[in-house]
């Protein structure tokens, strides 16, 4: 009897298991069958920018995924350009739903093949790099432009060494071929009528602006002065159709990877604070909010300081429903969307800090501001090296870093490679000044392009924790400068120039920010704080020069002819 009952029980368990499997398969197939039965013409719009009305229940994940590639805008695996990296940590460059895996030899080969698809090799005797197409002036926003006057100054006409030392050796004879991406619906940026050369292939001008930006990177700068491609790329960041969205893994706060119709990509940081809000006084620097307007302002400040080490950043008003929820295939992100009691669309994603219902990001009703930072070239094509900042903070509530307790710490740094030779230590001083002007305490690492070795610039990534307090100047940010007492002559001269009334830093930054769609980016107190902090920087350098002598503090990075020209125009 017991054996019969035991057998019946086993048969029952088996039947339950089979029923569960059958139901699971049916649930997966049902949305596709519904979609096929409904036909392509029934996916109409209801006149609302939301995917579902506030009174309706959200659609299931299965229905969201049932869209075809053409409807959702998600490129298939053959047409999707390799995901690019905008990370401070090499191990955190993948999104939580990324199509990119760790780049091994096979992936690197595939990446190069895809880059070659964008071109056909031309005559190497006529090398002319894209960043040198012309040097158009920036158009004044209204009337007289102080910004144009600044860029006409001799300090902003100093030539960098030979630009053949580029990240990619590509010339303008190469033709960009949209068919290489196997996408018949390729949309050219700009005019609908694409200019073709006699061979029937698009000219070099048809390259997407993100690709022109990548090709323009060289040993000394991310982009050349007044490069028209940068302004065009900023427009693309605002206007290009978003075809897919995924959360970026790593980091403490929510960031999204957005892919555009032209296969460019950008890092999206949503608005978390209003312009008027300051960082609460009881917040530690490592738990501060990352501000979208700080990323935008940092790009413009970096450009005015003539560093050109921040990738292009633009502000954009994003429709959370149509441009995030409806196009994402990141299930973890999709599940965090909800409708607030005020009938606003909200989401919170997944991250270490501030990713909960209590800290949700809500639209009005589904529009949200954010910054979009253009991606750098993929790591498979252009490896980057991550360096620990010698003046990194402890990121601890009670412990202090060595540099905070040892006044002679810089002497040790000066004897440590790569700071013992070359310009690396001076580049760190540039970065220190840049961070102090913004009030950014969160500079734990920095990156360089591996191809150029140690003789290259520092990339100023991740500036979202700047511009948090306009009423306070954090003097500990300036410790590297006060300890080392070293600065480039070109940097020192530009700082002195920007302290003059006719080239006032705050007014230049304010004018530059008027070009962004989300203006005003910074409120007046933050602009005035930059002028105040600039005077502090110059005072620290003045004290160093008085104590150690000009030649021991100011490193002459200008040739004699350039130095004489600048001296005569001052």
Automatic annotation (TrEMBL):
A single MF term (Gene Ontology): metal ion binding
Transmembrane segments: 12-30
Disordered, as annotated region: 38-74, 182-202
Residue numbers binding ATP: 253, 269, 290, 373-376, 447, 462
GO cellular component, one term: Golgi apparatus
Cofactors: Mn(2+)
Main location: Golgi
Localization annotation: Golgi apparatus
Binding residues annotated for Mn(2+), in chain numbering: 290, 462
Active site (UniProt): 442
Matching PROSITE patterns: PROKAR_LIPOPROTEIN (PS51257)
Stretches assigned to the FAM20 C-terminal domain: 337-554
Comp. bias intervals (Polar residues): 43-62
A Pfam family reported for this protein in Swiss-Prot or TrEMBL: Fam20C
Family listed: Belongs to the FAM20 family.
Protein name: Extracellular serine/threonine protein kinase FAM20C-like
